[in-house]
Structures are given as C-alpha cells and as structure tokens.
Amino acid sequence: MVGPGDDRPAQGVGRAALTRHFTRFAAIDWSGQAVAHPKGLAVAEVGDAGPELVVRKGGWSRGAVLDWLVGLAAARADTLIGLDLSPALPFVDRDTYFPGWNASPPDARALWAMVDTMAADDPFLAASSVVADAELSRHFRRQRACGDLFGVGRGRLRVCEERQLLAGLSPTSCFNLVGAAQVGKSSLTGMRVLHRLRGAIPVWPFDPLPDTGPVIVEIYTTIAARAAGVRKGLSKLRDAASLDAALAALGSATHVPIARYDDHATDALLSAAWLRTVAGDAGLWTPAGLTAQVARTEGWTFGVR
Questions:
Q1: Could you give phi then psi for residue 256, rounded to 5 degrees?
Q2: Which of 155, 174, 194, 303 is most open to solvent, judged by the fewest CB atoms within 10 Å of its CB?
Q3: pLDDT tens digits, 198-236
Q4: According to the model, what pLDDT value does residue 2 have?
Q5: Of 267, 236, 193, 246, residue with least CA distance to 27
C-alpha cells in the first residue's frame, strides 16, 4: 500500500549523477556467515587500469570492511562503492516490514538501528539474534523452521526485486535464510554495517547524491555478469581467462592476477569494472519504479531499470 504522495518519483536521487564524476569504483562481495572472517567477503577496486583485489592480511572481517569504508569517507575519496547485499527488507507490498507487529520500524534507517541493537551481543557483526527473536522469526524461512508469516513461494520481494523478475533474473526474498541463494543473513549483517557508518557515506537512494566523496549503492553481481556476456547458468567465473574475457566485454583491461579464483573474488572484480562502465548512465539513477516511499523504505538495486 502506498501512502499519500509516496508514489511520486523520488526527488533528488538522480540529479547529481548527470554531472557526478567518480575516479574509482569498488565492489564488495558480502557474506552473512557468523564467523570472524567469512569466506565470502571480497573487496575489489578499479581506476583507470584493470580491476584488482584489495587483499587484507588474515582475511576480511565485516568490521575490517567497515573500517575500510570509514577510511574512504575520511579521505573524501570519489569512489562509487557497490555492496552485494539488500540494504532493507520488503515494505511496500504490506506497508510495513513486519505485518502485525506494532514495533515494526517505519523506514530503512530505523530498521538498521533496530537490527544493530537487537544483535548487539552477536560477535563478528553477525545478526543471529534477530532471526531467533520470537516475533521476528515468524517472518523468516530458516533451516527446518519456516515462520508462519513468511508467505508462499519465494516469499515477499521488494519493488526492485519484482523488476528483476520481469528482467529475467531470479531474486531471492530477504526473508529467506535457507539455501545457497539465500540473501537474508547477508542483508541483516549489512544493515549493521550501514547503521554503524552513521551517515559517513551516503547510501543511494536513501540519501541524495553528494557532489563529491564516496557513495554506496546496492549491487547484484549477476547483473554485472549478464552485462559482460556471461550466459545464464554460468554466472560464476573461476579462472583468469574467463574473467578477462568477461572484463573485455565491458571494455576493461585485464585484472591484476590473484592467488585464488573463487566466486567471491571474481564477482567483486567483475562488478567493480561493471560499475565503472555504467556509472554515467543517468537512467540507472532514475528508474521508473523508484518512488519516494521506495527510496525511504526499501532502496533499489543499481542497474535495475
């Protein structure tokens, strides 16, 4: 249900993009794994040359990624940063995140704060306490326990995820915590990081685009793969030659070689190059379905029109 005036196009989210200049582009493949150094975390950057992996001794943690982002904010780096996670839960379909719960947050920033508060005692910026909560667990599909309010089929989707379906993609509900394609844990842990940034870096489309400095957008690495000509069913690249062929399709130079070619590293490298290719497309900053209500409550996947 859309409230009065909330179905209007979001104001100001795309204006700066028409003239905005970024000098570097970064992509972060995310993970909701409740361990100190999740295997799924990978960070890549690209400037004028080919993309390269940002390597951290001992491996990345969510806290280390947060510190890295804070460093970009302090440096006022003109970097467009893609986070491979959903920054909010579905809201528009039911006019609330958690139907039937009076304490359901009214918008995404309040949701981030709630998740971080509820998970305050969870180590490694995990969010296990959120999905274990007696009330909230009713909305999630968990291993061997599907909440009575999860819904049917693939579960509730955000507006931008409904658009992804129309485009032939296969989004997964943020309320799903089961299977290799689940995104719920990643989304919830990502919300903790976004909350702790405390506005240090604007997050599009929740915030207007600034004239300078870093900006965070949500990405879906499969979109980058499709743009690079990687056909459906073969979205994951696991060797240098395949990665460089995909990069070439985006007009990018070859990548800086890495020690191990896994899905997470190659997703980050390819997505960073893709961001550089499409960042100047004004239409991606002003998609038709991005209303004021969507921008405030659900956000949007960059690259979905």
A1: -75, 125
A2: 155
A3: 999 999 999 999 999 999 999 999 999 999 999 876 657
A4: 37
A5: 267
Whole-number Å distance between alpha carbons of 22 and 215: 9
For residue 218, the cross-strand partners are 83, 301
pTM for the predicted model, two decimal places? 0.94
Q: Is the pLDDT of residue 1 over 60?
A: no
pLDDT tens column, 62-72: 999 999 999 99
Exposure string (b/e) for 221-231, b if CB count within 10 Å is 16 or more? bbbbbbbbebe
What's the rounded Cα separation, in Å, for the pair 275 and 153?
Answer: 32
What is the C-alpha separation between 243 and 28, in angstroms, rounded? Answer: 17
Q: Is the pLDDT reported for residue 186 higher than 60?
A: yes
pLDDT at 20: 83
Structure tokens, 6:
């909330």
Average pLDDT for the chain: 93
User: 134 CB contacts (<8 Å, ≥6 apart)?
Assistant: none
Residue 18 has pLDDT above 70, yes or no: no
Across-strand partners of 42?
Answer: 29
Token output for 26: 């970064």
